[in-house]
Specification:
The protein has 2 domains: 174 residues, Hypothetical protein af1432; 53 residues, no CATH class. The protein contains 12 helices and 2 strands, in the order αββααααααααααα. It starts with a helix and ends in a 6-residue tail after the last helix. Strand 1 and strand 2 form a beta hairpin. It has a two-stranded antiparallel sheet. It is mostly helical. Helix 1 packs across helix 5.
Length: 260
Amino acid sequence: MTEAHTDERDVTRRTLLQRGAGVAAAGAATALAGRLAAAADRPGPAAALPATVAGVRIPDTEVARHTVAFARDVSSPSLFHHVLRSYVFGALVFDRQGARYDRELAFVATVLHDLGLVEAFQTPSERFEVDGADAARRFLHRLRVPAGRVDVVWDAIALHTSAGIAARKRPEIALVSVGSALDFTGNGLDRIPADVLAEVLGNFPRLEFKKVALDTVLSLCRTKPMGELMHPFAEVGRRHIPGFPVPTVEDLLMNAPFTE
């Protein structure tokens, strides 16, 4: 086969793949829009959360109830419990520091902070934090939440794994980062008394969260590896996936097209 024919075949293959991806994305977007609309119309969670957990008040506003219902609907039980523990842990830390913050806003942002780990909201190449922030924005727009509040939620979700940046932002943003990191890594767990920790875990058990989280990280590394470029998850991919294709920061630096 001539080189021209080979190139033509490759172009045709790429075109078909792109069209197929476009059709799949359109179908997924339509299904997602329906799911978001259904969640926004639902009056509240099937089972109400406790009014307080370990002394932390759980917001019970209309937006909070819709948010809980949505997160419960789209998340695995392990992930749903993680986001709830993240809120309680973050609130425990901030309340004991005497911090003042918008409790509903912090709650909504924390409960939605891991939407990017849900397959339905994943794009082919964005970081999961951005996917999650975008999904939260679409959901809150359907609830007619004011744009300024939606922007805070977007920032909180997009920055929640960037602790050094989130800590310099407003307290609702910082709380999401602190609470989620505490539940994910245990960083700061020594500040939580044993009886308080037992109450949090009694209300929101971990349900093999370590295994579920690791499986999810590896799935992201396999399905959209370039979404992990310069992301902490890339180190997990390099450890567990032979031939993981994502370059390191050193690779990017040394392969920059300069002559020196």
